[in-house]
């Protein structure tokens, strides 16, 4: 596997690929876990060339967020991506990504202002900008995003359609630890106790899914059932919302065919955790 | 020359091109005049394939601007681009460019908020968005922009750098009518008298250029000399500014090596006219 350093090395590598080759691209913030590796494996099946980027993008972190605490593991990342079958990994340098004079912004107002964007107004504009830049640099035919960041999937798909990019966005299912806790690089900032407490989030989502499978369609009751499981003095809930899977608009009731998505965000030991589950629709459930 | 109708026809045409071919792209709002055709001719010299787009982009017009009055001439445009040597022209349809649910925005705050962007806050975000979309659709290796829209050239260059697009932006000199009036599709909305009065803009710029060539470097005096020529009760000046050619920051004095750009915008018979000239630098002058 090629380890690419510097933007010019990346460009040269990209130019050197077979002109018609399918290129599968997995953008990451590093500290790669099994969730990321499942994206790489999926890309390996779908594309002739597989490339991974690693960049802890400062523009998607607000002033008081955990940019400095975000875990980093360059050597481990290179080793794991290589084993998972990637052809190249690029470690981006901040001064090359955002050189002096940088002025361009990208935004998707309605989708980017709800849920994870409500209290973090810079987050999704930052995500959209870096993803767009990476798409221009890697010029992929396919790009792989995990449904763990469900709102991000919706936003990237919307941006790709709106900006007429010819890239197929492939959504990959969320990966869980054995306990049920959604895999996240941030889990490494939890204590062993925190990891146990955090399982409550997924327990809540599964409880809602069971209720949905038994025929419950009312959003308030589905959410209340989840909330009971999540309730814990150590968990500070940011949101627990049942939304339309495409528009992210809040639902009063779930139409099983169109489906709904139950999304949760919470803080535990100052670590921000998110999780989500499909209720009906293509995503799953009865 | 191929006349492309519909976004899927454009995509199919683009996919059918030789993979490594150089593609020169000229985005326009139609009502093509000699200025546009000089861009097509320049593209013809530089690239193997030459494509033109025509779209009067509503998102770059404010509520009280001249979107409805903007001249349109589809048949003439196709004929003139063909004669100028283009291989394809695409007439974009608004409902394909901005389908329902469209949400993405692009902006370049510092550059986009001055001069033509000061009283028209939607203008340059609209330009940036449509240019980016067209770049994704046409995937050009070279794109051609006239220096008549000087601020637009600076903005597009900045966006291409910031977003890591591998496109060479080729600036082409402003083209004038015999009288000196800068060529513009909007000139067709002027009366014969208006066309004569409007020549004052270029006369003002040339007077500043002559003063610069005689050694004048002081911005206030260069601007004052131009203003004397432009002064006319029928002309309502929007701005007359001497700025840095790259940052567009106002200058106190011109460094002949770095150069300056004298930019003017005015209304005459309710028609908005712009013009500009290089003082020193690479652009010209002593």
Give a quick precis of the structure:
The structure is a homodimer of 286-residue chains. The first copy, chain A, folds into two domains: 2-172, HUPs (Rossmann fold); 185-277, 2-Layer Sandwich (Pantoate--beta-alanine Ligase, Chain: A,domain 2).
Task: Give your account of this protein's structure.
The structure is a homodimer. With about 290 residues, the first copy, chain A, is an alpha/beta fold. Chain A has two domains: about 1-170, HUPs (Rossmann fold, 3-Layer(aba) Sandwich); about 185-275, Pantoate-beta-alanine ligase, C-terminal domain (Pantoate--beta-alanine Ligase, Chain: A,domain 2). Chain A has helices at about 5-15, 35-45, 75-85, 95, 110, 125-140, 150-160, 190-215, 220-230, and strands at about 1-5, 25-30, 50-55, 90, 105, 140-145, 170, 235-245, 260-270, 270-280. The first copy, chain A, has a six-stranded parallel β-sheet with strand order 1-4-3-2-6-7, sandwiched between helices. In chain A, strands 8-9-10 form a three-stranded antiparallel β-sheet, with helices on one face. In chain A, helix 8 runs antiparallel to helix 9. Chain A is globular, with a radius of gyration of 19 Å. Chain A starts with a strand and ends in a 7-residue tail after the last strand. The mean pLDDT of chain A is about 95. Chains A and B meet through strand 5, helix 5, helix 6 and helix 7 of A and strand 5, helix 5, helix 6 and helix 7 of B. Strand 5 (about 105) of chain A pairs antiparallel with strand 5 of chain B.
